[in-house]
């Protein structure tokens, strides 16, 4: 499946992230001409593909569910750093930035990535099979985190507007970290089998029985790929930040809401996980796809809220976390539909279409609120 014999210096997946990092340094924080923007966009796309490749190498070495956890956490940590840096540098537009970005990540992962993965799996294999116990636990954690951090601020009364008081924000941060840590413990130690791929009969496919027969990479190869994965993800987020002024100008020229900028950047940042999830679904490893999607959604909330809670110490102005009525309806619909998808442990083309329909509604309402 994955070749390891070529020299490092001749691999595109090694060269592209390095070139992207070299390009990131002189382009950071500058107003770029059109040709340079095009080159940056190509390097961004190449870095996304390189990140997926190196994530698969690491996953092949450590096995599931550790492989999907590595990519989800790595992407989210860097995404959180991007959110905090944007909030610090934003000019009066940081009040809703964290909320808009986190909510966009939830919709992209729980509907976009899940729907696309189910679509690919059901078109190739008719029925997508996964472990309802593990996926159900992940979904319950996502729903709880999203409700506590994004819905409750709209209804609390200690502070005016859809914001937490300092004490409430501290509680939400601690609760988010605790729930995320408990989930990781369940996924990787106590109930690891619940998050492994299953066959059509519902039996767990342990690593020894997996269909990936290629020899596992060496420790050296794994360390190199892990380092290049982090480098590629840094360049993905960094180049997305470089491209953001172009995106902002395009959004403003088109007369679209400013929140669309956050959606576009979230789509770019989550591209590595999307491609990795789709590739897993093509191999009929839907459980791996769901681990990536729900794990990323959970990490996005569980790591972002504590980070902005700390950052709020030196950030001026309000921090609006509470969702509006439209977004709360979309979130509630997502939780209900996801529950009905997960409970049977099997999904068809219909479930894929429903999730993609919700995702399309989110994108349309972001453009036309």
From TrEMBL:
Keywords: Membrane, Transmembrane, Transmembrane helix. The chain crosses the membrane at residues 12-29, 35-54, 66-90, 102-123, 135-155, 167-185, 223-240, 260-278, 290-315, 321-342, 349-367. Residues 37-188, 225-367 form the Sodium/calcium exchanger membrane region domain. It is a multi-pass membrane protein. InterPro entries: Alkaline_pH_Ca-Antiporter, NaCa_Exmemb. GO terms for molecular function: potassium:proton antiporter activity; sodium:proton antiporter activity. It comes from the Bacteria. Its main location: membrane. GO terms for cellular component: plasma membrane. It is found in: Membrane. This is Ionic transporter y4hA.
């Amino acid at each position: 499946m994955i070749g390891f014999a070529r020299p490092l210096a001749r691999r595109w997946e090694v060269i592209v992230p390095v070139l992207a990092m070299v390009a990131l340094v002189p382009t950071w924080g500058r107003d770029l001409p059109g040709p340079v923007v095009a080159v940056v966009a190509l390097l961004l796309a190449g870095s996304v593909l390189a990140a997926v490749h190196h994530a698969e190498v690491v996953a092949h070495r450590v096995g599931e569910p550790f492989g999907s956890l590595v990519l989800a956490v790595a992407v989210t940590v860097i995404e959180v750093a991007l959110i905090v840096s944007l909030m610090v540098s934003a000019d009066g537009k940081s009040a809703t930035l964290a909320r808009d970005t986190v909510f966009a990540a939830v919709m992209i992962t729980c509907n976009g990535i899940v729907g696309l993965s189910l679509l690919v799996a059901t078109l190739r294999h008719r029925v997508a099979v996964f472990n309802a116990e593990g996926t159900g636990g992940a979904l319950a954690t996502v729903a709880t985190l999203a409700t506590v951090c994004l819905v409750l601020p709209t209804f609390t009364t200690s502070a005016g507007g859809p914001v937490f008081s300092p004490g409430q924000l501290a509680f939400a941060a601690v609760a988010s970290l605790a729930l995320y840590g408990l989930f990781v413990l369940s996924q990787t130690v106590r109930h690891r089998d619940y998050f492994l791929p299953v066959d059509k009969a519902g039996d767990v496919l342990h690593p020894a029985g997996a269909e990936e027969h290629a020899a596992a990479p060496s420790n050296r190869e794994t360390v190199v790929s892990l380092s290049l994965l982090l480098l590629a993800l840094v360049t993905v987020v960094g180049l997305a930040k470089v491209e953001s002024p172009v995106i902002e100008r395009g959004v403003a020229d088109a007369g679209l809401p400013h929140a669309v900028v956050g959606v576009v950047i979230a789509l770019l940042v989550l591209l590595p996980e999307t491609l990795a999830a789709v590739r897993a679904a093509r191999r009929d490893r839907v459980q791996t796809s769901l681990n990536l999607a729900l794990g990323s959604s959970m990490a996005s909330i569980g790591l972002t809220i504590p980070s902005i809670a700390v950052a709020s110490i030196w950030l001026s102005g309000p921090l609006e976390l509470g969702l509006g009525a439209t977004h709360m309806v979309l979130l509630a619909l997502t939780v209900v539909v996801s529950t009905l998808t997960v409970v049977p442990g099997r999904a068809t083309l219909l479930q894929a279409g429903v999730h993609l329909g919700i995702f399309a509604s989110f994108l349309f309402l972001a453009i036309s609120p």
